[in-house]
Write a structure and sequence with these properties.
heterodimer, A: about 230 residues, alpha/beta, six-stranded parallel sheet, 6 helices, 6 strands, about 15% strand, B: about 600 residues, mainly alpha, globular
């Protein structure tokens, strides 16, 4: 029988979340994960040591097994946060479906972006991801054909559109074959980063978010019917 | 004059049935005893409303014919073929075993050997009408005992042919023609062959042609004609009409018209069968009974006991599940309508005298009258005694230590169990319904007998070590008792509970259970989704709405739980909650419509 030591008690998805750092974990098969499972455990361990209001860890697949995201709770959690962490495996050069649905549902027009969509302005977004393929597969001559950086623009631009600063991602390549030592070191780095935030050596080097205001004309606001 | 007689007759029969049957059912005696009682009441020994019951009996026998046609319809040829062993094996054991013992018993009492043989053969028969009628009424045709009873009844139908043919030979004077009986045998076989071949080749095309005429009453007429014609054909060559109808039924069991034939014939069968029982009730000759009350009582008790002994031995060796044995024994121990025919034939042939014949007929009728009463008694005392007193199914004794215990293995628990099982989890299953357990065991489930509200049994089932206890008991009171006991004694086990309704949900909630599912909520929401989809909602949207409705509904339930004893506030809160959700959904529909008209899309958000 598969045991799940990752969700210790039944969680109430509707319980309010109020923390400076909001870690959103999205892994569809956490029980089979090597990297993300350790990372989640490390984050949870840190959460237990942290004072209230410092760190919240939300396992999206455990909270929303039926893919029915509680938008109000998620937006409230974002409101309270300074740093938002997306902890996920890279799936098909992108994010797992529930995280994408979370974007679609939670980051709404007029709230996260667009006119008056300033809820996330000034916050930080940190991508913590793992890939199955090793780093050298992300090269023009190998099977992934592109450097890994080539897959990051959608993330960066999502942050930018919401006025968030996109912090340098923490990526573990070749998660399938990573040694125990490598995994342990990776989790250690992750926990250290979470603990130190916002005191990161390179954080001042990160450029402020590019302003990308959506002009009012981008979306028709009157009720005149235009044919697209 | 003729006309009014017919009207009066109908009036009497229908009124008697309409009054007596609901009355009998009210006292939980079954409809058959109601019909029999009605017959006695209106018969020559009751209110004398009907004086010549024999005529009615002959007409009403057709109900038995229709019933066997319907039984045949339920039995595809392959299944009948697979029943050949029980039919010819166990059927012969019952008929000839009983007949032999009865004849020996009669001889031992110093009765003439010819009378002994006729009486034995006639009394060894059982009432197909009551037997199959009771099986249908209790919906147990498919059980082991049901199939056994059907098999024996079929063999009796088959055996009736040679028995009726041979009885006249017992008369000293009846040695008329050996060759005519050979001729009759050949005719019989020929007729059966005609029915089988005709049924295979002609019936279906004929029915299709009739069905294509699209006149429902003509199809009904054709159905009846089919049965009547088969019966008449069989009757003409001296075979059992019921057997012919049964054969026709089997031949049509695989046809596409099976359901239609069933619904067409069913009401005729029901009424005629009722009439048959009324006729049986009427034809009890109380003069014979009053003349020799002790002798007739001894005869009835004697032949019932001998037949029951044979049946008991059969039930043990077949074997028939212990709880089904009482019904099996009682239904086949009684005498039957074939007995009437055997005695009549014998009397006509001069093998037995007319008074002896009516004595035997009375004995058979009384046994048929006793059968529903005995069944009633068996249900009240015998079967509970087998089930409870002797603990037929032993209570769980060996300690179990599976991680999951399922208490209650009805409709709900079974689905939970199957899902767990499919994923390699072997739950320990407890149920206290002995019949249910037997049925489940036949499907290969390891189900233990035990009352899940008892602490000692739960401990044996491994509640100390279990991580999850699924309480799927359907009785609300027992479910609450069980949960209380678990919470008090096995606090480490998570309780996953089935709630029958909202009140049950509240009670479980107050006991601290968090994993509660109302048994109809999710299936009803699936139906709501289907309805929205038919109306044009996008399937995925319907799904989202259903899930959100569910979330709101469950949250609402938790919020109102503290108010549950204050009805007025509970109703107010429920109304408010419903209104909130309706407003929310309405607002979203409006926003979607606005968004679409802004974007210039055609159509509306929701149809």
């Amino acid at each position: 029988m598969a045991t799940n030591d990752l969700s210790p008690a039944p969680v109430d998805p509707a319980a309010p979340v109020d923390a400076e750092i909001l870690v959103l974990v999205a892994h569809p098969e956490l029980d089979q994960s090597r990297a993300n499972r350790r990372l989640l455990q490390a984050a949870r361990a840190l959460q237990r040591k942290s004072p209230p209001g410092r760190l919240a860890v939300r396992d999206l697949y455990a909270l929303y097994p039926d893919y029915l995201i509680d938008i109000a709770v998620e937006q409230a959690a974002l409101n309270a946060a300074k740093l938002v962490v997306w902890q996920q495996p890279i799936r098909w050069y992108s994010m797992p479906p529930l995280l994408k649905l979370w974007l679609d549902d939670v980051l709404t027009f007029g709230w996260a972006y667009g006119p008056d969509g300033n809820a996330l302005r000034g916050k930080d977004l940190w991508l913590v991801a793992s890939t199955g393929g090793p780093e050298d597969s992300y090269r023009p001559e190998s099977y992934n054909r592109y450097f890994f950086d080539a897959f990051l623009p959608p993330y960066e631009q999502t942050a930018a559109l919401c006025g968030m600063r996109f912090l340098p991602p923490l990526i573990l390549h070749g998660a399938h074959k990573a040694s125990e030592a490598e995994l342990a070191a990776h989790a250690e780095t992750y926990a250290q980063r979470l603990a130190d935030y916002p005191v990161w050596p390179e954080i001042d080097l990160v450029e402020d978010c590019v302003e990308c205001a959506v002009p009012p004309s981008a979306r028709p606001t009157d009720r005149v019917v235009e044919l697209a | 004059m003729e006309h009014s007689a017919w009207l009066t007759g109908s009036l009497i029969y229908l009124a008697a049935a309409v009054i007596a049957v609901p009355l009998a059912r009210f006292f939980k005696l079954g409809s058959i005893i109601g019909y029999l009682g009605a017959g006695i009441l209106i018969g020559p020994w009751g209110l004398k409303l009907v004086t010549r019951p024999e005529d009615m009996l002959q007409f009403a026998e057709f109900g038995v014919v229709l019933m066997l046609f319907l039984v045949g319809l339920e039995l595809e040829p392959q299944r009948l073929w697979s029943l050949r062993k029980p039919i010819f094996g166990w059927g012969s054991v019952q008929l000839f075993g009983s007949a032999l013992l009865l004849a020996l018993g009669a001889l031992a009492c110093g009765i003439d050997w010819r009378l002994a043989v006729v009486a034995a053969l006639g009394l060894a028969m059982s009432s197909t009408a009551i037997g199959l009628g009771v099986l249908a009424e209790r919906n147990v045709m498919g059980t082991t005992s049901g199939e056994a009873i059907l098999s024996v009844a079929l063999l009796q139908d088959i055996a009736a042919i040679p028995i009726l043919a041979l009885v006249p030979f017992l008369a000293i004077a009846g040695a008329d023609s050996g060759e005519s009986s050979w001729l009759r045998l050949a005719l019989a076989i020929g007729t059966i062959a005609v029915i089988i071949l005709g049924g295979r080749l002609l019936l279906r095309p004929a029915l299709r042609w009739i069905a294509n005429s699209e006149t429902p009453e003509i199809f009904t007429a054709a159905s009846l004609l089919l049965v009547v014609a088969t019966a008449a054909l069989m009757n003409a060559v001296g075979l059992s009409m019921a057997l012919g109808a049964f054969l026709a039924g089997v031949l049509l069991a695989e046809s596409e018209y099976r359901r239609e034939l069933e619904t067409d014939i069913e009401p005729f069968k029901g009424l005629l069968l009722g009439l048959f029982f009324i006729a049986v009730g009427m034809s009890i000759d109380f003069a014979v009974v009053i003349a020799q009350p002790l002798l007739i009582a001894a005869t009835v008790v004697g032949f019932l006991l001998i037949k029951a002994g044979v049946l008991w031995a059969m039930a043990r060796t077949m074997p028939i599940p212990q709880l089904e044995r009482p019904v099996f024994i009682i239904l086949l121990a009684q005498g039957g309508e074939f007995g009437f025919v055997v005695f009549q034939t014998a009397a006509l042939a001069g093998v037995i005298s007319a008074p002896v014949s009516s004595f035997l007929v009375a004995a058979v009728t009384i046994s048929m009258l006793l059968t529903p009463l005995m069944l009633f008694a068996a249900d009240r005392w015998w079967i509970p005694f087998l089930a409870g007193g002797k603990k037929v199914i032993e209570e769980i004794k060996e300690p179990q230590n599976e991680p999951v215990i399922i208490a209650g293995f009805g409709r709900y628990g079974q689905i939970v169990g199957r899902m767990l099982f499919a994923n390699g989890v072997r739950p320990t299953v407890l149920d206290h319904d002995a019949e249910q357990i037997e049925a489940m065991r036949r499907f290969g489930w390891r189900v233990y007998y035990g009352d899940a509200t008892r602490l000692d049994l739960m401990r044996t089932a491994g509640a100390d070590k279990a991580r999850v206890i699924v309480v799927a008991i359907d009785d609300i009171e027992q479910s609450i008792d069980c949960v209380k006991m678990i919470r008090a004694n096995f606090p480490n086990a998570a309780v996953v509970a089935r709630a029958r309704n909202v009140q049950h949900y509240y009670e479980l909630y107050e006991l601290g259970v968090t994993l509660i599912e109302r048994e109809t909520l999710d299936s009803a929401l699936m139906s709501a989704r289907s309805a929205l989809e038919v109306l044009g909602w996008q399937p995925h949207r319907a799904r989202n709405l259903a899930l959100r409705f569910r979330r709101h509904n469950v949250a609402q339930l938790a919020a109102t739980a503290p108010l549950r004893k204050d009805e007025a506030r509970l109703i107010a809160a429920a109304k408010q909650g419903r209104q909130q959700l309706e407003e929310l959904f309405a607002l979203e529909r409006q926003q979607a419509t606005e968004r679409q008209s802004r974007a210039g899309w055609s159509g509306t958000a929701d149809p």
